[in-house]
């Protein structure tokens, strides 16, 4: 595969050309002293980019939007969104830019997008900047999700700008370069619908079908098929979040993609003590986006997408609503099937096990975990050892020993597959204390903790000697973890 130097990167402008009403041409602010902090070399190579070239002065300036290939047309994208339930008809990329689209080595189209590149007209009073810590958070957590096999935007690079950013204190500034199959969101459709422009809405839907769900084009009702494809993608995605204990933290409709990729790693974190009411975000005062609420919130967000698509689903409003409600009704069974399938894998249950046996077994272990607030990641991984006969590591995590012993007896009688369990239960996730350690060090210029954490997270299902601390829960003095959106 031939890798392109920074000077030869070809950035398409398909989004800007096809949807000019959603694309505001803009340029990134000049970074005073850009310094590369992290570069995702495997991702760069997969995009057909030369990592060595990206490390040059010219390459680093590309990664902050200050050196643009000929023909590049960076834009800030317009979108709307429900934020904590309240509708904002005009949000958009207030501190972000779509530099353009890359054709990856596999022939697929990928957005190259900046975050923290300066104010745009969508900034709504913000400074348009980002600090090193939150940008490193997105880098490490998005790569953790990729390692787990969960659909996600990915981080290509974090570059320190040399510009201070004022938050509670003055912090070093940074720009994140990230890659996605696109940045189309539920909020993109809400924006188009709010304009009352039927042609724009139709062109946006056609763009989404061509980019993400081409099978919908051949359906009897293409726009209803598009909606159902997004429902299916999001049902699968959120089930995967739940299975690994991931808490997104800010599931606004502008943070739900049409592609079914996880996007925007602001106040996100991973469960330790299992509790469906867990909230990590500093701004989620009501628990709207708590871990256990995520499937319901996803369904609510999809209902908002359905509302935006109604004019395309059917000319008659009543019939459009009836069809949309019917299609939305596929979310719960799709989510339940995906989650149940995942739980069967996590418990190593044999294929074909009757539902009346599997369902209570799964339900009982979840209740046991909830009652005793066991470590989510550690407990499931320890059950793999229990399947091999060593019950103590899992048993030591619970308080209700009699309840656990009775459950284990029922479970082991089914002959759980320990190897299947190891493929479904990670040893390493982006544990909150380790992420925080890496971010604090990285903000101070020490990137070694970040690099070591990324090494562990690159192969999360493979237990490796020397990485024991990355599998351990937070020390008791770490306390309750609170995350912030990074703006």
Walk me through this protein's architecture.
The protein has 487 residues and is α+β, with helices and mostly antiparallel strands. Among the domains are: 6-180, no CATH class; 186-339, no CATH class. 43% of the residues lie in helices and 12% in strands. The chain contains 18 helices and eleven strands. The strands form four sheets. Strands 2-8-9-7-6 form a five-stranded antiparallel β-sheet. It is globular. The model has no long low-confidence stretch (mean pLDDT 95).
List keywords for this structure.
487 residues; alpha+beta; 5-stranded antiparallel beta sheet; two-stranded antiparallel sheet; 43% helix
> What value does the average pLDDT take?
95
Give the class from helix and strand content and strand pairing: alpha+beta
Radius of gyration from CA coordinates = 23 Å
Percentage of residues in strands? 5-15%
SSE pattern? HEEHHHEEEEEHEEHHHEEHHHHHHHHHH
Largest β sheet strand count, sense and barrel closure: 5 strands, antiparallel
- Number of beta strands: 11
Structure annotation, total helices: 18
In angstroms, what separates the terminal alpha carbons?
A: 39 Å
Q: Which residues sit in consecutive blocks of at least 5 with pLDDT less than 50?
A: none
Helix content: 40-55%
Main sheet: strand order: 2-8-9-7-6
Bulk shape = globular
